[in-house]
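Now for one record:
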Amino acid sequence: MELKFSRDNAEVDEIIDLLMEKAGKIHHTSSVREMIITALKAGQESDYLADQKLLNSTMKEMRYTNKVFAPYRQKRKVTIFGSARTERDDPMYAKCVTFSRLLAEKGYMIITGGGGGIMEAGNEGAGAENSFAVNIRLPFEQMPNRVMLANPRLITYKHFFTRKVAFVKETEAIAVFPGGFGTLDEAMEVFTLIQTGKTSPKPLVLLDDEDGYWTQWFEFVKECLLGKGFISGEDFSIFTITRDVNEAIQVIEDFYRNYHSLRFVNSHLIFRLTKELTKENIELLEDEFPELRLPDTRICACAPFPEESDEPDLLTFHRISLRFNHQHYGLLMAFIRKINTF
């Protein structure tokens, strides 16, 4: 039979309902039902075993990721990217240890790739008790580091793409130290996700070395990307380059000085804030960021929308809303930084 996501599958729907009832303690049953239907449809539509294995392993990895991170949802986290080949006597190793130690002292947890080099430095500075390691199975270079070996917050992935989801989905900020192809791949992924609105806005800090690794990269971006019109000037709001770990931490802290989080509800973009904005604050935002709004719309203070009731722990925050045009995500980062000045 042709299965449908609507409840038009007769006996199959009844069997799925019974299965969830027998399993017990199923949250969000409508979503779980769709996952079951998806698996059944995949089984009907493809006889290619490799496709089935990919779907299976992807879901298993994402399920386990959610399980490991779930107890720490209320803890702010910072993801650290950087080279696995950075030696322990390298100044950047010491800088990363200091950076992650200072963040841990401020109550943050650290997420790294779990390998050596900068990843080990990040876990070392924060300590195993304040760390996650999202490792990857490779033929070389990626055994779990000595800090995270046998840690319950060590996850080893088969797929790079599921690992990348964990890096970005579970963090409030990202810091990138110098590195090779893998580090640049991770950094460019984050640039793209923020620029296109495929992840929530978050501070992205590039920690430079004395040779100007990121400074030289910045010159390339200005000349070859901006100069040729491949990116726009507002995209430079996405990241900050610094050699100072204290400045890097301040960038992260300042991003959440007033801004807490955002959510789309239908055509409205809702900003949750720790401090209520005045009428004058909102008027200033409208004057400085007209490009963010759809024509003939305003920025308004608002109460929680009914659709937000599924996040009861966030209902007490102050809010403003606007009709976002989904075009200027770089400018959206500047908008949030302006909110944090009030």
